[in-house]
Amino acid sequence: MTQFASLPWAAILFSALAMTLIVALRYLATSGLFAWITGRVRPGLYAGQDAQIRNEVRWSLASAAIYGLPAGVVAWGWQNRGWTRIYTDWSDWPLWYAPLSLMLYLLLHDTWFYWTHRWMHGPRGLRWGHALHHASKPPTAWAAMSFHPWEALSGALVIPLLTFVIPIHVGILGLVLTIMTVMGIANHMGWEMFSRRIVHGPLGKWLITASHHERHHREYRCNYGLYFRHWDRLCGTDRDPVDFSPRP
Ligand SMILES: [Zn+2]
Ligand SMILES: [Zn+2]
């Protein structure tokens, strides 16, 4: 109890606020960039969606606070109390472990996402909050973090908790967060940035890109995965990626 009371709460709060700001700015910069690119390569794609985009930005900024809070607390504990298994010296673990840790984080996050996402498409899950994400019809590059607070919380805890269990270099952790941010945005932006050879080739059979997640937004009852298609394929919920031209 004394130990709890003696924690420097102001510093922890400051870390949580700083992290919230970082997540919010990262979202605005990256979604803004992809929305701008969309305007160049698919002019008029988001025409008439201004009101929806305002909602997507509002909910995404609320999610930034929910993501920032646990991340900021864990970052403070990592820096000041030696929490987590995040390491900074590449020689702490063999070099071959770096790509393995990347895959472990992506696979475990994907597994958590697939099963919670499937639950969210049951009758209780949609009412619980997932309907908000699907209010974006069709979604835009601004919808990447447009989640009900409950859903944002379920996503926000995964990676901070994993850092307590699975060792990861801070640079690889940055790569995990970059992949999460970029793919989250790209998968909602309404066009495919990868070539047909990738999407419809052997790699596309296992990886999720915009054409795959778009089908989830059109049909609801398929393509629940985040990065990989293996859970969808194993569980019979996988459908082929859509062809984006034209978008209904
Ligand atoms: Zn969904
Ligand atoms: Zn989505």
TrEMBL record:
Keyword terms of this UniProt record: Membrane, Transmembrane, Transmembrane helix
Cellular component terms per the entry's GO annotation: membrane
Keyword Transmembrane in annotation: yes
Keyword Transcription regulation in annotation: no
Transmembrane segments: 12-37, 57-76, 96-115, 157-186
Domain Fatty acid hydroxylase as annotated: residue spans: 103-237
GO BP: any one term: lipid biosynthetic process
Compartment(s) of residence: Membrane
One protein family per Pfam: FA_hydroxylase
InterPro entries: Fatty_acid_hydroxylase (IPR006694), Sterol_Desaturase_Related (IPR050307)
Single annotated GO MF: iron ion binding
Official protein name in the record: Sterol desaturase family protein
